[in-house]
Write a structure and sequence with these properties.
With about 180 residues, the protein is α+β, with helices and mostly antiparallel strands. The protein has a single domain, classed as Glutaredoxin (3-Layer(aba) Sandwich). It is built from five helices and six strands, in the order αβββαβααββα. It has a four-stranded mixed β-sheet, covered by helices on one side.
């Protein structure tokens, strides 16, 4: 009997968390307010990115993932972040130019934000905070979070996990229903 009561409570909590995650505002590259709700029904890969990092070449792999799966419903969201060694010092215009000319990036790059510390953005607090989906600070640039079509967090991948890593591509394909 207790089993029947616990499962709906867990499902209800997950649904509430997804609704909260979808409602957290952030700024797009033009400085306009947006949220994950703008990508409702898509599988979302959230990545904190930086232009002057040893992992910056991951942009190429992220773009390849996006191109391969965008028609099936994947969107990659790049959040520039200057939290690690000052490796993203530029303006959003400079970042976009760099990404487009160097890596041919077409996936959305959003406004800069902080992923940790006292200025941590609420989206990252919801993902990594003590009561978040995946507690524990983002450790470096190019940390990745996979969000399902329903807005629920599915998986976290550490910065050194390359975009073509089997565990990441398998999780994306599963979320896409492939």
């Amino acid at each position: 009997m207790l089993r029947h009561l616990v499962i709906p409570a867990i499902a209800l909590a997950s649904t509430a968390f997804a609704a909260d995650l979808n409602s957290i505002a952030f700024l797009d590259a033009a400085g306009k307010e947006s949220s994950l709700k703008a990508y409702q029904g898509k599988v979302i890969l959230i990545v904190n990115v930086a232009s002057k990092c040893g992992l910056t070449p991951q942009y190429e792999g992220l773009e390849a993932l996006y191109q391969k799966h965008k028609d099936a419903g994947l969107v990659v969201l790049g959040f520039p972040c200057n939290d690690f060694g000052g490796q993203e010092p530029g303006t959003i215009a400079e970042i976009q130019t760099f990404c487009k000319t160097t890596y041919k990036v077409t996936f959305p790059l959003l406004a800069k934000l902080s992923v940790k510390g006292k200025d941590q953005h609420p989206l990252y607090a919801a993902l990594t905070g003590p009561h978040g989906a995946f507690p524990g600070d983002v450790t470096w640039n190019f940390g990745k979070f996979l969000i399902g079509r329903d807005g629920k967090p599915l998986a976290r991948f550490e910065p050194k996990t390359k975009p073509d890593a089997p565990e990441l591509t398998a999780a994306i394909e599963k979320a896409l229903g492939k």
